[in-house]
């Protein structure tokens, strides 16, 4: 019997050739991590977005396949290694307006609970 394929949600931001265009195939664990950050106060979201942006920008000289995972502290204090695409997506999303944050959070929660949708792009 074949193993079921993993459940993935595409997190997208902008479209090429936009310089911030990025797409990440997120697992349910990735989505839960993102939700932890989306529920944080604006100041915390802004701070982590700036840190992630600096780290991602420092890696632009590397090819897409050589970029290392990005260390990131969870709001609870534990460190995790994020794929650079997820780190870039977060760096673009976390500073968004409260309306965009709320809309994105609702869509992510709906996907976790009901498997609705396959792409989350806060712009659309």
Describe the structure.
- This protein has 124 residues and is α+β, with helices and mostly antiparallel strands.
- The protein has one domain.
- The protein has helices spanning 28-38, 42-58, 84-93, 98-114, and strands at 9-13, 22-26, 70-73, 79-82, 119-120.
- Strands 2-1-5 form a 3-stranded mixed β-sheet.
- The longest helix has 17 residues, at 42-58.
- It is globular.
- It starts with 8 loop residues before the first strand and ends with a strand.
- The model has no long low-confidence stretch (mean pLDDT 89).
Indicate how many domains the architecture comprises: 1
For the secondary structure, the number of strands is 5
Instruction: Pick out the low-confidence regions.
Output: none
Q: Structural class given helices, strands, pairing?
A: alpha+beta
Give, in spatial order, the strands making up the sheet with the most strands: 2-1-5
The helix tally amounts to 4
Counting copies of identical and different chains, the oligomeric state is: single chain
**Share in helix:** 40-55%
| Portion in strands | 15-25%
Question: SSE order, as H and E?
Answer: EEHHEEHHE
Shape: globular
Report how far apart the termini are: 38 Å
Give a short account of the largest sheet: 3 strands, mixed
Report the mean per-residue pLDDT as an integer.
89
């Amino acid at each position: 019997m074949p193993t079921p394929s993993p459940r993935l949600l595409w997190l997208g931001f902008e479209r090429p050739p936009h310089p911030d265009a990025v797409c990440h195939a997120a697992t349910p664990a990735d989505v839960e991590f993102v939700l932890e950050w989306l529920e944080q106060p604006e100041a915390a979201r802004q701070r982590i977005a700036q840190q992630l942006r600096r780290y991602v920008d420092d890696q632009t000289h590397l090819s897409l396949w050589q970029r290392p995972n990005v260390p990131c502290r969870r709001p609870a204090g534990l460190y995790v290694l994020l794929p650079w695409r997820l780190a870039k997506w977060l760096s673009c999303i976390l500073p968004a307006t409260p309306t965009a944050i709320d809309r994105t959070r609702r869509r992510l929660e709906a996907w976790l609970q009901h498997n609705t949708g396959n792409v989350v792009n806060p712009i659309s």
